[in-house]
Amino acid sequence: MKNDFCLIFDMDGTLWDATGSILNSANEVLEKEKGWKDYLDLDTLSRVMGLEIEEIANIYFPELEQEEKMDLIYKVMDNENLYLSKHGGILYPNVESTLQILSQKYDLMIVTNAQEGYTDAMYQSHGLKKYFTDELTYGETMKPKGQNISLIKRLIILGIRKKIKMLANSLRFLLCMQAMALGMSKIMIKRLIHSKNY
């Protein structure tokens, strides 16, 4: 029988090191889109790991207008997901065996500042999906990791969830179903998800 709470993991620096693959995929796009050969290096990449998408765009492309920065960063991240799903990253030692043991006692979840699809890329390249019950990314909620964890806590405070345990369905589906059962409109649900006051 599993415990009544889940363990929440970050990805980069916790489960794997994907910097080599991220660097290759980013430079691939930047050369194609802008003609910038080997524009990024590992130093620059290490400075942005764990940051929100807008912050990364500002560091990568300080000379570009905001709209162009964001357009380019989303192209970089789309290619990153494709590249990582094929090539993966480097799992840290004993990660899979540890996840296997922990998943027998706890529900495991990933909360990360990464773009939507990043967790799926790791699952596909390394076969780790079977250990995790859910994930929540910055790209899905447009909120940083800390606020996404607060969202989970808020669900508990509202009585929507009795424990931090992510179901097989996504958090958004769970939130919508439970909130509708409590009589909240879809507009109220959307406001809750996008509110900074949780």
Structural class: mainly alpha
Main sheet properties: 3 strands, parallel
Q: What sequence of helices (H) and strands (E) makes up the elements?
A: EEHHHHEHEHEHHHH
Round the mean pLDDT to the nearest integer and report it. Answer: 80
Rounded to an integer, what's the Rg over CA atoms?
A: 18 Å
Q: What percentage of residues falls in helices of 4 or more residues?
A: 55-70%
Number of helices: 10
Q: Distance between termini?
A: 31 Å
Strand content: 5-15%
Q: Note the overall shape.
A: globular
Number of DSSP strands?
5
Contiguous uncertain segments of 5+ residues: 161-174
Strand order of the largest sheet: 1-4-5
Q: Can you put this structure into words, describing what you see?
A:
- There is one protein chain.
- The protein has 198 residues and is mainly alpha-helical.
- The strands form 2 sheets. A 3-stranded parallel sheet has the order 1-4-5, with helices on both faces.
- Strand 4, helix 6 and strand 5 form a beta-alpha-beta unit.
- Helix 4 packs parallel to helix 6.
- About 7% of the residues have low confidence.
SSE layout:
Layout: E1 6-9, E2 16-17, H1 19-34, H2 42-48, H3 53-60, H4 66-87, E3 90-91, H5 95-105, E4 107-112, H6 118-126, E5 134-137, H7 138-141, H8 145-157, H9 171-181, H10 186-194
Parallel strand pairs: 1-4, 4-5
Antiparallel strand pairs: 2-3
Helix pairs in contact: 1-4, 3-4, 4-6
Task: List the keywords.
198 residues, mainly alpha, three-stranded parallel beta sheet, two-stranded antiparallel sheet, 10 helices, 5 strands
